[in-house]
Design goal:
alpha+beta, Naphthalene 1,2-dioxygenase Alpha Subunit, Chain A, domain 1, Rieske Iron-sulfur Protein, seven-stranded antiparallel beta sheet, 17 strands
Length: about 400
């Protein structure tokens, strides 16, 4: 049996039945960040978003709203849209040519009987919502409520001007390992000093509580004069309210001399939102079980971890800057992406090695350290969700 306070048993990483259960009870039940509204500037702008065995087309309709549809033809089930992104007035199935408009309505199907019900054969909708600029998708027919999340996250997200940001860079990282190992790794900083020297010289998460409180106070004293308010929200994992998305917000100080997450700690883009100066902090936000946001004073990094299959996962990273910032003048993409690109490449190696190890006949789950408390809570939540009835 799974031992409390310990890493997950081997079966959670290698068992196809458990993976199938995770898809139904966790992955498809959760809201997942699938982009930012700036990626859908014009009607007809679309993106295909894949999670596990599902594929959704996210598109801005002629009415200006952003919707999502299952990327499955209503004729014989072929994938409809094969291109990752683009702009179109209609989606044409490559198999038999059934054609849908950007509202998912079937508008062409050859040689169908006279009594054929066109209205009943539109693309099936997938739950899609916009939370202060971020696009969230959920593959459940009964998605968790976003109401309180929208309400409580409004102020922290407004401080950074989330509605007016734009995606300056995007990268997909293919990770040949079970999806949970990626999220477990992201949840803790016990490994940071060993594995991430660049991250560790600027972020204070690996300090003991006493030292961290000292630098934290220094940042808090500066926050207000920089246009920030101190906010703490914790409805993450086991603290999530029943029937609602889990969400949270907190801000943590960086080491003295670092204004942002860059090679030299100096700004890499213009200040965001209502900020007037650098307080030397970085904000963490959480949306659901697979989407994480890191907001520096001058740019935002969005991390999304999703399963591909039992043995493969994907990490999508979006780097966001002010909507009016100009590439080459206000920011350089290489400088902007440097820290989290090198960190993610290092994490990929760690996660793959971890996956090889947990498949060994000699693997026995060890106890979590004090610094791995968020991971311990995440594992407790995961087990709780798996035990919940469908």
């Amino acid at each position: 049996a799974q031992k409390p306070g310990h890493a997950l048993d081997q079966r959670f990483y290698v068992d196809e039945e458990i993976y199938a259960l995770e898809l139904e009870r966790i992955v498809y039940r959760n809201w997942i960040v699938a982009g930012h509204q700036s990626q859908f500037a014009k009607p007809g702008d679309y993106k295909v978003f894949k999670v596990g065995g599902e594929s959704a087309i996210i598109v801005r309709g002629v009415d200006g709203s952003i919707k999502a549809f299952a990327n499955v033809c209503r004729h014989r089930g072929s994938l409809v849209c094969l291109q990752a992104t683009g702009n179109t007035r209609k989606f044409v199935c490559p198999y038999h040519g059934w054609t849908y408009d950007t509202d998912g309505k079937l508008i062409a199907a050859r040689d169908m009987p006279e009594d054929f019900d066109w209205d009943a054969h539109g693309l099936r909708p997938v739950s899609c919502d916009v939370v202060h600029g971020l696009i969230l998708v959920c593959f459940s027919d009964k998605p968790p409520s976003l109401d309180n999340c929208k309400k409580e996250m409004a102020e922290p997200m407004a401080m950074f001007g989330f509605e007016d940001l734009k995606v300056a860079a995007f990268k997909e990282y293919a990770i040949p390992a079970n999806w949970k190992l990626s999220i477990e790794n992201y949840q803790e900083c016990y490994h940071c000093a060993t594995a991430h020297p660049d991250y560790a010289r600027m972020h204070t998460l690996m300090l003991d509580r006493r030292k961290r409180d000292r630098v934290q106070k220094h940042m808090q004293d500066r926050m207000e004069s920089c246009g920030l308010r101190e906010i703490y929200i914790d409805h993450i994992d086991t603290a999530a309210r029943p029937g609602e998305i889990g969400y949270g917000y907190s801000r943590t100080a960086m080491f003295e001399g670092y204004k942002t997450g860059s090679k030299d700690g100096e700004p890499v883009a213009p200040l965001l939102g209502t900020l007037t100066d650098y307080d030397g902090g970085a904000s963490d936000m959480t949306f659901g079980a697979m989407s994480f946001v890191l907001a520096y004073s001058d740019h935002v990094v969005v991390y999304v971890f999703t399963p591909v299959d039992l043995k493969n996962s994907r990490c999508d990273i979006y780097w966001l800057v002010r909507g009016d910032a100009e590439e080459g003048k206000d920011y350089n993409v290489d400088e902007l992406t440097w820290l989290w690109d090198v960190t993610t490449e290092a994490d990929k190696t760690i996660i793959v090695n971890n996956y090889k190890g947990v498949q060994s006949r000699y693997y026995r789950p060890g106890p979590f350290s004090g610094m791995e408390n968020p991971e311990r809570i995440y594992v407790e939540w995961l087990l709780q969700e798996l035990a919940r009835p469908l």
